[in-house]
Amino acid sequence: MKKVEILIHRSLHDETFDLLQDMGVLQITSHQDFKNEDLSEGLHSEDLERNINEVRYCLDFMNKYRTEKQPFLESFFPTPIPIQKSEFLNKVFNHSQIFKNCQSIEERFNTIRASMNRLNAQLEFLNRIESLPIALEDIGTTRYVKSFLLEMNDIQCPLLQNRLEQIGKEFSLQKFQGKEGKCFAFLIIHQDLIEPVETILAEESISILSLPQAFEGTPKEAIQSVKKKIQNLEKEQADVEKEAVSLLKHESELKITLDYYTTALERRNSEAQIFKTHDVCLITGWAIEETIPVIEERMKPIGKEWVISQRDPDPGEDVPIALENGPWTRNFDVLTNLYGLPNYTEIDPTPFVAIFFFAYFGICLGDAVYGLIVALIGFMAPNFIQMPDSSKRFFRMLAWGGIASMIFGALTGSWMGDTFDYLPSFLGFMTTLKNKLMIINPISNPLPMIIVSIVIGIIQVLVGLLIAFAKEWKRKNYHSAIYDKLSWFLFILSIVIYIIAMAVIPSLKTFGLWLVVATALFLVGTQGRSKKNIILRIFSGLYSLYGITSYLGDVLSYSRLFALGLTTTIIAMLGRTIAGLFGSSPYFGWIIWIVIFIGFTIFNILMSGLGAFVHSARLNYVEFFTKFYENGGKPFQPLQYKTKYVKFTEE
Q1: Which terminal residue of the chain, N or C, has fewer Cβ atoms less than 10 Å from its own Cβ?
Q2: Burial per residue of 92-101, b for 16 or more beta-carbon CB atoms within 10 angstroms, e otherwise
Q3: Count of CB atoms situated within 10 Å of the CB of 258
Q4: List of residues 6+ apart from 649 with CB closer than 8 A
Q5: Which residues of the chain have pLDDT under 50?
Q6: Are 20 and 287 in contact (CB under 8 A)?
Q7: Distance CA 287, CA 638 (A)
């Protein structure tokens, strides 16, 4: 990555930015020594941001009232709108009226919903008292009397009658039977009895029903009136929904407009970063070194009033990160991006991650046929579905994981589990091929596969320590490189040599033991070097040997590779067995067998594939990256056309 400065005459401003945005190779930043005092760009950016928010609001609004259900894949990978770049750049579409229409329709929807909620609450109340033969307008207060609508249980009715008779005769109480042991009462009292009656009602825990609003007629008549209002509102809501649906004809234009405004805002924000005078403009930014000659070549037709300079990043500069990997390795960039980009001085771990993820995914999925299916989907999907480049790389990464699964599945004899052992006789050659390719049978003899998983774990841990050593050495932290990284690398390697010697080459057993002792003494002598007291230094060094348990835990984590691969095989065998049990039924047994077998196969591929991805990534992130990796880098974001819905076609 290089720091680039382009000094141009102000007359070349628009053409230069057109070129840079078209190329998409320069991330423009503000110059550290100059500050642009021109505030007009900021004001224009606010207008663009407002337009973007308005158009997004319109699209979100329309999406809520879409009558046709979108295909499943369309929600993840929307079909791009083809348009020529010249037409896109000259796109003029006034979205303001559509925005106002969307706002108006939504306000009407909100009003209708509020009214519907209110009427439904009224209807719920009226349904409770539907059987009462009283005029609801009679409930309330007049000059001389007050009336109540009461709700109580059957036991409280005679008690209320007795209590009222004790305080006077200026009352009228009508009782009506309700539902579920409830009864209602219509009570009319003289104004002088309001206070004592309310006291009685409170003491007896009798509920006073308040009308949600004024009604006319009996509850049944009021219910009919409310239902009619609800029907009218439903009709009005349907009409408003039709208006909302009619706006969908503008969806494509709005999507193009949104991409246009987003692109314009990207450019405006970049233009606000440059330094301007009356005569010249200074454009400062970051570019990949290989693209700088291309910029110079493309600038020549514009004019001669420009000059480009470049330099290496200064120490401490915040340099954006663009991962540059080979054709195969770049498919695994997604793993590094998920964890976090490395800072500029950090080693790009993608090449190492690619190799280990390839192997781990293959072992975890561990089936030749499942791997073939995943590989076909991964390689073919980007060719049939429009998707961003990052998604294409993700699918290709899964495809390569599928190829690894084919390899490890063939080596462990898993072809849809043990299905190939039950093929008909005319397909016996496939069973023979399977048996010839198999070198490990994890079902009958799991130990070799466990050893393979552990060995791979040891290799990755050692590679992580070697990378950490190289990184510290490059930074000229020689003591840390040798004492903290290389020493542990040699100690773990010596233990591995000693174990191999005991198991395979007994004659090297003594040599291996002395190697372990020597590297352990080296650790004891160096790990406590920060202590000034010699006794503390020795004890600190001895205590550091306890760190081997951490490395042991890391290595044992790799046993999950064996467990996940074995799980895939067992589930496949279970699916075949269950399908065989149900498939033995007469007449339609073969149909049942196909349905169950295919169902188990799809389930196994999805679940085992997900597990393979998650655990393979986890081993890289937790057991590998922790040995050396420092993330925190910011992605390289050059000025370009940022389009979500549009795809440019040839002029």
Answers
A1: C
A2: eeebeebbeb
A3: 22
A4: 82, 83, 84
A5: 39-40, 42-43
A6: no
A7: 8
Residues 469-481, buried b or exposed e (16+ Cβ, 10 A)?
Answer: bebbeeeeeeebb
Please report the pLDDT score of residue 43 as a whole number.
46
| Unique residue bearing structure tokens 């040839």 | 650
Name the residue with tokens 């790799």.
558
One-character DSSP codes across 383-427:
HHS---HHHHHHHHHHHHHHHHHHHHHHHHT-STTTGGGG--GGG
Beta-carbon contacts of residue 583 (< 8 Å; ≥ 6 apart): 589, 590, 592, 593, 596, 597
CA neighbor of 400 nearest in space, from 433, 344, 341, 360:
360
Cβ(620)–Cβ(6) under 8 Å?
Answer: no
Residues 6 or more apart whose Cβ sits within 8 Å of residue 94: none
Measured between alpha carbons, how far is 417 from 438 in angstroms, rounded to an integer?
13
Q: Rounded to the nearest 5°, which phi and psi values hold at 139?
A: -80, 125
- Structural Rg of the chain based on CA atoms: 39
Position 200 scores a pLDDT of 86
Q: Please report the pLDDT score of residue 543 as a whole number.
A: 76
Q: How many whole angstroms separate alpha carbon 359 and alpha carbon 365?
A: 10
- Cβ 376 vs Cβ 406: under 8 Å: no
CATH number for domain 124-229, candidates 3.60.21.10, 3.30.70.2750, 3.30.1370.100, 3.20.190.10: 3.30.70.2750
Residues 6+ apart with CB under 8 A from 292: 2, 4, 308, 310
Question: Phi/psi at 7 (nearest 5 deg)?
Answer: -100, 120
CB atoms within 10 A of CB 62: 19
Q: Tell me the pairing of strands 275-276 and 207-208.
A: unpaired
CA distance 354 to 314: 31
Q: Quick one: pLDDT at residue 42? A: 47
Structure tokens, 511: 């040599």
575: CB partners within 8 A, 6+ apart: 417, 596, 597, 599, 600, 601, 603, 604
User: Where do the structural domains in the chain lie, given as residue ranges?
Assistant: 2-91+247-311, 124-229, 334-439+558-630, 443-556
Give pLDDT, residue 75: 65
Three-state DSSP class for residue 50: helix
- Give CA 343 to chain center in angstroms: 24
Distances (CA, A) of 445 to 205, 404, 412, 439, 456: 76, 22, 11, 11, 19
What span, in angstroms and rounded, lies between the C-alpha atoms of 36 and 13? 15
DSSP string for residues in 154-218 = TTHHHHHHHHHHHH-S-EEEEEEE-STTEEEEEEEEEGGGHHHHHHHHHHTTPEEPPPSS---S-
Could you give the CA distance from residue 89 to residue 323 in angstroms, rounded to a whole number? Answer: 30
